[in-house]
Amino acid sequence: MDRLDAVYLSLRGRLARSIAAIIRDQAAADDLTQEVYLRARKALETTSPDNLDAFLWQIGRNLALDHLRSRKTASRRLASDLPAEMLESIPDIGPSAEQQLNAKDDLRLIMQHLEKLPPRAREIWLLSRLEGWSYPKIAQHLNVSPNTVFNDMKMVMGMFVDLKRRMQRDG
After folding, report:
1. C-alpha to C-alpha distances, 116 to 14, 64, 84, 102, nearest whole angstrom
2. Which H or E run contains 92?
3. Which CATH code is given to the segment(s) 97-170?
4. What is the pTM for the complete model shown?
5. Could you tell me the residue ranges of all domains in the chain?
6. Which CATH class is domain 3-88?
7. DSSP states along 29-84
8. What does the alpha-carbon distance between residue 69 and residue 59 come to, in Å, rounded to a whole number?
């Protein structure tokens, strides 16, 4: 297996979830994640990036944004075919600017708390929640007991419960 294959396989799950978070369509995100690999393979014929991880993330982000742009263009084309009265009656189902700002603040606060965790606990949480690994697999990977994984996850989840309570109280 070459370096691209190894790096892509290690990032594939997180990359797919990241793309899905941007475009809000899991099936399309899965397709775009595969497209990341194909584009990277082709690009590596003519270029040699210093950081392959960052290169794959950038391709994924660009593909997600291109997908959103093409979807927006397609919806404009469809919208131009509708009478103005009908267009005006369509409710906006997207989050308001205030909701978007609140979500960004919440994410910033969550990231700050994640950074304060002990490194092993943070890695266990990332492997479990973002990569979908089982506790036994994490334990084997980190060379710790499954009980240690469980206890670290319990600590992290307790921190998130406390944070959620504070956010609801303050927000």
Report:
1. 21, 30, 52, 21
2. none
3. 1.10.10.10
4. 0.45
5. 3-88, 97-170
6. mainly alpha
7. HHHHHHHHHHHHHHHTTT---S-HHHHHHHHHHHHHHHHHHHHHHHHHHHHHTS-H
8. 15
